Amino acid sequence: MTNPPETDSDSLVTIYSQKIRTIRTRSCTLEIPERENEVSILHTLLGIELQIGRRRFSCPDLPTARYMRVFARLGCSEFAIPYDITKISTLADELETSWQRALLLLKTTTAGLTERQVKRRRSEYFKIVRMEIAAIGPGEKMPLFNQSTKQRTS
């Protein structure tokens, strides 16, 4: 499988490269395996947590957890998170929609294949997406602020 089953304008990689990496972001690193993972969002007494396998990662809020869940499902250990928290929710919506669309298109393109072939195609597709996101990169650990501040000179 050489081409992802999504259209160019709404693929996970396109959203990441054109809508996320073009704005001010900070990098995020999760110590997770590079494969498709089972991910769940937990509401605990300590706040929101992202559970990936047996590991738990603390998240500041629900939109950030939803955003991180898409990359954790893919097995991306390094990715960019928008610094502006008001943009995370809409980007999480777009990424989750693209994720569901990819799953649906994979299901329709693999109809009639054996279960083993379906799993192989699915893992090949997610490996391609993971490699393309890794090629784009997670960006800087902290964004640069090139704004001068006004200070009193008295």
- Assembly context of the chains: single chain
Which ranges are low-confidence, i.e. pLDDT below 50, for 5 or more consecutive residues?
none
Per DSSP, the total helix count is 4
Radius of gyration: 18 Å
End-to-end Cα distance, whole Å, is 67 Å
Overall structural domain count: 1
Strand content: 15-25%
- Strands, count: 5
Residue share in helix = 40-55%
Give the overall silhouette.
globular
Class per helix and strand makeup:
alpha+beta
Strand order of the largest sheet: 2-3-4
How would you describe what is shown here?
The chain has 154 residues and is an alpha+beta fold. It contains four helices and five strands. Strands 2-3-4 form a three-stranded antiparallel sheet, covered by helices on one side. Strands 1-5 form a two-stranded antiparallel ribbon. Helix 1 packs antiparallel against helix 3 (85-109), helix 1 (12-20) packs parallel to helix 4 (115-136) and helix 2 runs parallel beside helix 3. The longest helix has 25 residues, at 85-109. It is globular, with a radius of gyration of 18 Å. The protein starts with 11 loop residues before the first helix and ends in an 18-residue tail after the last helix. The mean pLDDT is 88.
